[in-house]
Amino acid sequence: MHITQLNWECLLHLFSFLDKNSRKNLARTCHKLLEVFQDPLLWSLLNFHSPVELKKDNFLLGPALKHLSICWYSERVKVCNIEDWMKNSFQKDFCKRHENTVSDFLLDVCNRCPNLLSLTLSGCGHITDDCILQLLKNCPNLKSLKLENCVRITDRTLEAVTLHGASLRTLHVDFCRNLTQAGLQRVREKCPSVMLRAERSANMIPDSKPEKKLMLEKASRKLVQL
């Protein structure tokens, strides 16, 4: 039996075991398999391990998408997540080349995936509060939002959760150093049904200019001497 003789449900099941590149390659072999590739039921879950993957034409975005994960684990993450004033010219150029990649992708998700239920972002150093705000507004069914090492996220995101996260049940904001204890407390008070986790976030040193960091260090030394 040829693969194209399988019924539609079997073909969808077969495609579900393949990664995005393999699905695309198989879809190129004939028109029927291309139609299977384009079936929205195949694309309810998407996982990405690099911003480069977001630019590939090997997946579909649409209302069927329920679960999205963009987790970038690399030495390059450390470059993108340090303050701009600490970067050398090479590092700044590297970050500039993909600064809007994830944000632009998520804005596309806002417009095309209103039924999103869960979003996980890890190491996405360029994601801003405005981007998360748009997601919360456009994806009203979002139940789980997990952010890790997203260093541009501030208390504005926490405020957006209290205003637009009516369906949210899980919120993780780990290693997001520009959040404050006050912002986290507001979420606890206004959204008691949300399971909030914030490992190392408000306890980390927030972004600041070199002069401010120097002042903090001097003040710490004086306290030690006292």
From TrEMBL:
GO CC annotation: cytoplasm
Domain called F-box: residue spans: 9-46
Superkingdom of the organism of origin: Eukaryota
SUPFAM superfamilies: F-box domain, RNI-like
Record carries keyword Acetylation: no
Matching InterPro entries: F-box-like_dom_sf (IPR036047), F-box_dom (IPR001810), F-box_LRR-repeat (IPR050648), Leu-rich_rpt_Cys-con_subtyp (IPR006553), LRR_dom_sf (IPR032675)
Alphabetic keyword roster: Ubl conjugation pathway
Pfam families reported for this sequence: F-box-like
PANTHER family per the UniProt record, alphabetical: FI18408P1, MITOCHONDRIAL ATP SYNTHASE COUPLING FACTOR B
Protein name according to UniProt: FXL22 protein
Record organism: Promerops cafer (Cape sugarbird)
Gene: Fbxl22
